[in-house]
Every structure is written in structure tokens, then in C-alpha cells.
């Protein structure tokens, strides 16, 4: 080989290496298991793969097994061997209908306990031969089983005597992409939209396939492709052809496509004069449009609608209500098995009272009036995806209406894709919260999985943090939030600790000295962020528009409830929004037990203190400190926690490839800097009202309040 060729070869190797660990492979790294005895142990249980059935989905499962097993165990696994030749230690996969009868009859009991998407992973002995079977009632169930089986190995679990039966607890598990047709992403911090509308339908980006694979691996079964602030053009034939191309790619992965429908589309693209939901022409327009969609996408999921919210059109423009609007669309999709996800994120421009009360006020009176195929999609809290919010009171108040959870995965209010915040901790706080609707233990999880009120249609939506960045989420750590969302949509009872554990091991390493400290850091990361941004129940004090950085001083926006001063209400007496019975009385929207707890200063959890109460600066916190001192110390604690996260990460260098190690390190450094910015700006601002000095232990700000107020970020992303 001449020197030139050698050089090319060398560059190729370097290049391969640098791409090998850039985060693109997400949690599906399938790293070679270095521990020889463990590897041998696995190898001894899997000698061959045998698929039953050859649908596209089964082949995807088979390829995944080949890819995963050869990656982790370093052997070539032969598939499609002669089925009559089943030997010991064969891994069998296939749905109930395609498995051979002697195998499927051994799983009869398990099949009876799973739903259509569930799976079984079981060690069996047939004619004296040991085998592992991965099965389900449907091919997609089998695929979920495959990913779960691979996860066992990724997380170094035993595969000796397997008997796993699992099925999703929620039906609709969807990502909501706030992606625009021009490839910008509202509140997106990970690059452009992954949907290359311009080159679709003919150009199929490999990313679409990898996206589908990643989602299937965590059980996500739907995707809403376009922004809730929708452009009606998505419903024109030109775009529907592109949507169809994506639907075709996603189908074998068990993923349905949904679209956000702009309520005024009949006018904008249909040439009608009105979008009144009771108008016969409008009703027919939606029926025809729906039929047109189903003709090319027979398994189309349905529509998501943001109506009469933040200026979006809706039924109220015609003096109709949410029921009129949602039911009209629900009737259009019903014949095809489609659903409507109607959002409850509404707040009136004409009611300056308390924004937190408005969605409940608008929706609860309609309980029981929506059609069976309507899900009301409710954000986790009543304001807007804050670092911490009490659960939305609607979850405890609409027993006759299927309510769907909407979480935000993208970090609009939590430091964009820069800050490393593990969100499943927050999701769990909400899911585990007790609504007391039917007495104790009526958790939000039981409301949304339908078990509390015996509801059939259930779901969870996550506002996606995915973009065209090579590592998908702009920060490798935030892949954990996509992962965790999927896992919780599958099973809202999983713990955030388990989710972190799985994710760390599948993404980075099983080394205990890595897993433990990183898990601790992830589990503490939400609290750290709440501390340096909005401790003790503060909320919505971010800067205007882009919400990047602190802006507690903002008071000049046209709508009162857009201003941070509306939320913190700091004055000479104290700080906080009085939502108790002596204030806006928002507490009344909760069940009596919950209302009582929040209403009473003594029982209100301190993490929600300033959410529900206006509290004097000298008020004594549970730790004996005054509110002012306690608040200042919380801000400092948040900064200290990020410093500790950074230290932990620095010590992890030996366990992580350089690229991912270094990217996370740089981002944590920014987070540390920004945590101090938050602390200093907020404390200087609130100090004008408290007129108190900073307690011992809180670092003195190095810049003035004027300086912080002067900072402008006209090009902050995602706006
Ligand atoms: C807010 C966002 C805005 C969204 C809106 C929504 O600032 O970009 O359009 O929520 O959820 O959080 O509709």
C-alpha cells in the first residue's frame, strides 16, 4: 500500500471513530461487552435466531436482534435457519398467530394477560430443548419484546430463566413536534426540524428510519408531525403526499402519524367563508378532508387541535364552544377509527384574575359532553411547563372525560438544550400526585391510565426535544428525557431512578463507578434547576418571548399574565401569588383534601409556598430561616448543586468517549455560569423589595441589577 492510501485509510479510521460516539446512536449503542464471563454467559443462552413470520415488522425485529447481539456479544447470529431444526438455545421470535402451535400453546396463560401491544419474553423447554421466545399478539408487540430483550443485555441483566410479560398502560403514546413547515421548531433547541418537507416525499432521510427505531424501542406509537400553532397547508394534497411518505416509513415500527389541524383550514385552504363547527359546509369539508387523508394513510391517527388559545382560531370565534369544535372533528375521523386530541391550554385575554384557573373554568363544565374518540390534552400544570408546578386541577375534576397528559420534553423554561435537567423526576412528581378525586390514592397516573374511572381511551403526549443536530437533542443528556417520556407513557408507574439506570447503562456504561454518581447527579438535577431558577413555588419569571434567562422585572407586556411581576407579586410586604381562599381561590379547583393542604400555610408543601401564598419576607420557614434568607440560600444551593454535577462529570472522564464527555462538560460549564446569573439577577431584583442583606453562605453578586436588566437576546433560539 502506498503512503497516500495509508493516509486515506488512517483518516477513515479517525473519521469512523469520531462518528462512532457522537450521540447519534442514542440509547441503542449496543457496545461490546468487555466482561468475558458475562459475555460468554449470554452467548451460551443464544446460539441462533429463528423468526416466525416475515412481515416487515418481524424483519425489523430480527435485524435489530442481529445488530444488537452481534454488537454486544461479538458473534454473528444466523437467522432464518430451518425451523424443524430447532436446537438448544435458540431465540425464537414471532407473534401468537405465526409461532408454531407447540410453542404458542406453552404461552397461553401469558397471552391472556396482555393487550394488542404487549409482549412476552419467556424461557421454555420444548422437546427437551431450551429456548427463549419473544412473542406478542401482534408483530409490533413482538418488536417491543425484542427491544426489551436487548435492554436486558444492555443493562447486564440475567437472561437465565426469563418470564417477562409486559404491556403498555396507555393507548396513545405520542410525541408532539412543534415543527413548522419552514423547518424552524417552536421552542426547539436542537437544530432544524428533522422533517425535510422540501425534499419529501421522494427523498427519504435515514433519520426518519432511525427516529422510528428509537421511538419503537421505548414504546412510542404516534407522532404529531407539525406545530400546535398550525399552518393549514399541511392539509393540502401537496403536503399530504409527504405525510404519507413518513407514515409509510413509520408504520412497520408501530407508529401512527397524526397532524395538528388548524381550525380555520376550511377557510384558508377550503375556500369557505366560515369555519363554524355547526355549519353544514364546514362539517362536510372536514369529512371530505378526513376521507381524503385516510385514503392514502389508512391508519392515520387523527387530529391534534389548539383552538382559541393564544390567538389560534377556534369554535369560540363563532360563538360555539370546545364541545362543538371537538365533536365536529371527532365525527369526521370516527368512521376510520381516528381520534381528536383537543388541547386544554387556554387562558383568556379578558380575564386578568388568575390565569391558573382558566382552563379548568372553561373545560370542567363540559365534562361528559365530548364524543368517545376525543381526548382532552391537558398540560401537567395549570400555567405553562414551569420548572415545577402543582398538578393541573383538571386531572381531579373531569371523571367523565378521557384526559391525556401533555408533558414538555423540550426545555422552553428550563435552560433550553443547554442545561442538563433529567425531566422524568418532574413527570413523576405530577403522575404520583394525589388528586383525592375518589379519596386517597387517586393519583394523576390512575386518572390518565383510565383505571380510576374505567376509561378506554388513554394517552400521553410529549412536546419533542428532537432536532436535526447530530445527537438529536442538542445535549446527549437530554436524550434521557425523550427516553424517559417514552418509558413513562408505556408505564407511568416506573420510577425515575429505574429509568435513569436503564438509560445510563444503555447509553454509556454499566461500570458501577460510573452508573452510581451519574444517576445521583441526574436525579438531583431537577431540584438544582428549580433552586437556581424558581425556588419555593416561584414561577414564570423568565425573560420575555424566548424565556431564556431571568426576567423577574418584566412588567410592560400587553397582556398582564405575560408579565413575570404578575406571577411573583413581590412588594415591600413579601412575595408570592395568593391563590388561597383569601386570594384568587384557585385552591378551590382541587378536591377538598388537596385544597385544604395547599390553602393552609402550615401544610402547603414549601416547594409550592409562593405558588399559593403571598408570604412575608420575615415568615419563618420549616428550617427556622426567614423567607428571604431561605430563598437566597435556595438560589445558592442550586448553584452549588450544578457545581457538584460538574465535578462529578469531570471525574467520569475515564468511562466516556471523549466527544460525548467533552460536550457534556462544556454544557455543564455553561449551566454553572447561567445558574449564577439566575441567582444574582433574581436576588438583586427581589432585594429591592425585601430590603434585606444576603445571608451568610450566599455569594455576593459581581454585577449590578442594571447590568442584568440590560441583557438582550434577540436571537435566542426556539422563539
Ligand atoms: C407555550 C409556548 C408557546 C406554545 C404554547 C402552547 O410558549 O410557544 O405555542 O405554549 O403550548 O408554552 O400552545
Overview of this protein structure:
Residues 8-19 have low confidence and may be disordered. The longest helix is centred in the C-terminal third of the chain and has 33 residues, at 658-690. 38% of the residues lie in helices and 10% in strands. Helix 15 (479-490) crosses helix 16 (496-507), helix 16 (496-507) crosses helix 17 (512-533) and helix 21 (627-650) packs antiparallel against helix 22 (658-690). It has 3 domains: 24-166, 2-Layer Sandwich (Chitobiase, domain 2), CATH 3.30.379; 172-503, Alpha-Beta Barrel (TIM Barrel), CATH 3.20.20.80; 531-577 and 614-710, Alpha-d-glucuronidase, C-terminal Domain, CATH 3.90.1330.10. It is built from 23 helices and 15 strands. The termini are far apart. The chain has 719 residues and is an alpha/beta fold. Beta-D-glucopyranuronic acid is lined by residues 186-187, 228-229, 306, 309-310, 345, 384-385, 412. Beta-D-glucopyranuronic acid (BDP) binds next to loops.
